[in-house]
Amino acid sequence: MNALHRRTFLKQAGLSAASLPFITGLPSLGLAAPARPRQRLVFMFSPNGTIPAAFWPDETGTDFQLKEIMTPLAAFKDRMLVLNGVNNKVKGDGDSHMRGMSCLLTGIELFPGNIMGGGGQPAGWASGISIDQEIKNHLQKSDDTRTRFGSLEFGVGVTDRADPWTRMSYAGANKPIAPISDPYQMYEKLYGQMKDKENLQSVLDTVKGDLQKVGKLISAADRRLLEEHQALVRQMEQEIVNAKQQKLRAAPPTLGEGVADQNDNLPRLSRMQIDLLVNSFVNDMARVATLQFTKSVGGARMNWLDIKEGHHTLSHDDREEAVAAKLVKINKWFAGELAYLVQKLSTTPEPGGEGMMLDNTLIVWTNELGRGSSHTLNNIPFLLIGGAPGFTMGRSLQLDQVAHNRLHLALAHSMGYRLETFGKAALCDGGPLKLTA
Amino acid sequence: MHRMSFHRNLVALAGLLLTGLWLAPPASAATFSLFSRKPDGPAIYKQQCVKCHGPAGQGVKGKYNDPLVGDWSVEKLTRYIAKTMPEDKPGSCTGPKADAVARYIHDTFYSREARARAQTARVELVRLTNRQHLLSVADLFRATGEEPKVTAGKGLQAAGYKSARGTRREDRALDRTDRKIEFDFGTDRPQWAGEGTNGFALHWSGSVIADETGEHEFVVKAANGIRLWVNDDDKPLIDGSVSSAKGIEHRAGIRLIGGRAYPIRLEFFKAARDKIANVALLWQPPHGALQVIPARNLAPERAATTFILTTPFPADDSSVGYERGVSVSKEWDEAVTHAAIEVATHAAKNLDRLTRGKASDSDRATKVEAFCAEFVTRAFRRPLTDEQKNLFVTLPLRSAAKLEDGVKRVVLLTLKSPRFLYLGLEGAGAQPDDFTVAERLSFGLWDSLPDTALTKAAAEGKLRTREQVAEQARRMLADARTRGKMQYFLHRWLQMNHIEDLTKDPSVFPGFTPEIIADLRTSLNLFLDDVVWTESSDYRRLVLEDDFFVNGRLAKFYGVNTDATEDFVRVQLDPKQRSGVITHPYLLAAFSYNKSSSPIHRGVFLTRNIVGRALRPPPMAIAFKDGDFKPGMSMREKITELTRPQACQSCHSVINPLGFSLENFDAVGRFRDQDGNRRINAAADYTTDDGGIVRLKGARDVAEFAVKSEHAHQAFIEQLFSQVVKQPMLAYGPDVLNQLRLSFVESGYNIQKLLVDIATVSALQETGKPASTSK
Questions:
Q1: Which residues of B touch A112 (CB under 8 A)?
Q2: A98, A128, A100: which is closest to A116 by C-alpha?
Q3: What is the rounded distance in angstroms from the CA atom of residue B603 to the CA atom of residue B552?
Q4: ipTM entry
Q5: Which among B663, B705, B666, B713 has a CA at the least distance from the CA of B686?
């Protein structure tokens, strides 16, 4: 964080140098039971469209059969809401992948720019904030929903390149947010201060001894200053001890060492990130998260599934049977990662509350395209799992080609934020989708 | 000397009387007091003054709160007492009685000399000030080798490429220097890029030089892709690779230390499909306005990066007029700890670069240990004993499982150690040791750690004689850090560090824009640099010079005839009107109200900072309200009216004439003959410290008076001394001021030489015992 941003942050948080959140006080612990149940929202992204025939259930309503891609989620069928017929209707500059990605959570056009894609006009960044950030800003405004980070942006194998294909979260127009793809970096962000604290604690004894020693070098008149200083060091030592007694609700996960950010490590990286995500939720560091697998046009080579071609290349030929089979396997793998996340949340008790964390967490699995070969932005595979006010789960719905902006409105409402419009206002006609049975 | 012992006897006598003991006085004293019939000063004081002023002039709560100290001569004091004292019965203590009590007051506690005798000022143990901490941490990571020479004023090195990629050698089509980055190519292709539809790129690199310490906001406006690096070779400050056809204004802030150069690199690329192309590199420096970075802040050579802490610190104590580290607090300790963590993280992240090695090196542990030992030695400003090396390097390195954590522990321990945080902990005995002398020199001149050459001189025992120390000080003058320190002093002397907002009422002063205000500060900085850093370095020029630095914008606003454009040029103003810093519009505007001049603010500034007189705080707070006066009165008449009460006059008889002498300048510092429809009268009678009257007809008379006034010289020297040394001057002996002044006068008022003198005297001071007992 550079100085200016830190200053702005401190100002916004109402903190001055004098009340800088001190090392001994962080990460914020001691979770009392909240007045209202905590409500959480996760957007999980996987790229290149789906295979409609292997994804969408044939039936609507509560009685529906899961297709092949969704089979890893069978145990959670009664917790899911399948939304067929939701379209990304944002037009304008940029190719379908670009708009599919950068308008997915923003619901508003891209600026014209210098990035030329596979069609359409060259484009730049999105011209507005994304829904995850909009909701996060809302939650951070009041005391009972504010958390240390507000939101966390996880990536798995996102290439180290900043363009409209790689970014879906935006802090505002022209302000893309880079997801953190390196779990070690995320760990540092979440728990780095604990390590700092440990290092600090290890040196304080020597500092005290040293102060004692140099005190002998100086006159009695000057010693007063050093004595005051010594008292401060003792105080800090005590505060660290006290802080340590405040246990984290969940200890940080143990990450395997040296897992490099490479294609073949994606399965391991994915689990590490999901572990960190759930852990950060248990410790209430954020209420909103994004989990982005690769990027739009993502070309992961899933050697672990015995698939040698890149994901994106395959997606162009999804009408060939053999290719489609591979794409089903790929998408089923993503569903499996989602199942891992859902499983964890469904078995972790709600901290300081009742039930399991999944009851108060809504996960939205989404994609930049409806299907790879046509590059359509219609019928984007939206699968919701978990629980949120206003969402009746355990259903498969066929909607009438509605704009995805309206889904965003519904999500905001479920988080207690009564947004009237979001993104492009004209696409919000009809208001939030009604997803109560 | 004679008089002093005489008074000591009297004080002793008074003491005896007070305690009620009666002893036969020595014959001589008895004779003296009985037969000379001379009035007894101490007795009169005790009888008539003590109840309000206290037995030692320290003041009495509820009567007269303030200590009785000042700079009036005995004569002036006598006249004042005769006229006004005691308060309940003025006129009852006159003639020889007034003279005797004035003399007693003056010589016992009132005058500077008396205070010097009475005080047991000593060189105190101090911690680093915030500025010293910031600069020391920066210098901890400074490369030991030669600094790249950076020539500000030329602009940046530019390389043009015939394709947007801009990396291939064969595409390189342009090498030149650009004085500023502000280009609008429209829909055209620059000629050097040749024919084609490929797009093109421009890369600029070099250094950016910060004038002042603080937040600098960099702004790149472009319709195309850009990336900007500032003081970081790896991570861009702004990544604007994705452009917007409407143009994006990219902004990012970074803290920079004034007076230093930082590497900067801007890459600009126009893709083939971008319809238009334009780019501009701007900044908003501290106290500045948003502007295209001017050539004088750019250089084509690349400086090395500087590590700059971002941890905020609570403000230092500056209650005695200069920042000093005399207290510690929880907030400070926490800031120190945060800063230590910030530095530790930086060191661990950049370990390969810092140790010139890589993770796979077989001798990595050895390299890291050597780096740590060097780091601790630099931070502590003296070689480590074996025991210290074990404690601060070996043990913490071994205590952690991971090498990076070990390094973090070394850094944390070092930066939290009193050996880093305090000045003069070791080796400050009767005879300061070599490393203490080096430390005092570098903190005096740079507010930072000794450099390699200075440490070497200390290790070789070459800082023993006055000449050796002065020699080092003279070498250090050439370093940019000395310029930074000098600017730090000048800004405090002229109170420029307190100036935040000079905006005036736009209906009265249209066109006095933030840009003009920023230009004025630059103009004043250029003037100060010009005077101090030329060979003569003549203090008198600061107040007498009629030079003025202007750019086109300032010239237009102030009606100066010159063909200056964006660059600043030196012009000569009418010496009858202008006189050095006294009439610089930046200060004139600073010491003015929103709509009008303020003779009181200007007068107080001149009294304290230019002619060097002491002023007490005003006995009552009276706000100037323009509406209270009859319309049509001149400002001078209003102030005269406002300060008429006797209680005001003891100070305002000094303040007002000085303030009135600048009435020829309006609230934005433009020369004027009229105040409303009244003709300006800038002439006034100024009462000197010995009660004499001097007729001042305008700014130049004030300047002429100041450069000849001992008080003014002393005040300047004392200010410089305390900003440099950050210890009470009296702790260095009662004579040091006079010695410095004599040498200052002899050198033709050379400021650089005075700085060397101050650094040398303070570096060699014996501090083992209180200075008052030394010779």
A1: 244-246
A2: A98
A3: 31
A4: 0.81
A5: B705
